[in-house]
Design goal:
This protein has a single domain, classed as Elongation Factor Tu (Ef-tu), domain 3 (Beta Barrel). Strand 4 and strand 5 form a beta hairpin. By secondary structure, the protein is mainly β. The chain contains 1 helix and 11 strands, in the order ββββββαβββββ.
Length: 169
Amino acid sequence: MEKIVGKIARKYMAHFLDAAFAAGETEKSWYRIGEDLEDYTVDMNPDTEVKKNILGNTTFNHNGYEPSADSDPFYARVGDALFEKLQAIIDAQANDDTCKTTALEVHLWDGDEETGYTAYTQECYVVPNSYGGDTSGYQIPYSVNYVGERTKGKYDPKTKKFTADSLSP
């Protein structure tokens, strides 16, 4: 891959889900999100509060983030591991840890094929929002709700493995 300079093209911010839904396990089946998407934005959903007291002083509290993202559309494809898991969640109307997996974010502008790329993992819940769709195909739009701490590390594109930095929690 060429060295990235200047404005970063969207394709270099890669988002993956563990399609095996093996949260906490070492063997992951990374599925790159985006085949049918024109937009995938992680909304940070900051929990902030600004207050003004009777003295005219303003205080600001930042209580963290509740990141989430929507994948719409997602077209079902026979043999696709993510489709099979989403369909199983729909069929069972699961609302528990059946929906829990791991997300991987890879910064393809920060690193290279030999040394790997800066990456972060975080547990998440993948929740189908609906299913069906129009004549363009069977669709299962879903939401990704990120939970817990992010772990920084490296993603090796050759082995498709994430290795946490030694200082990560």
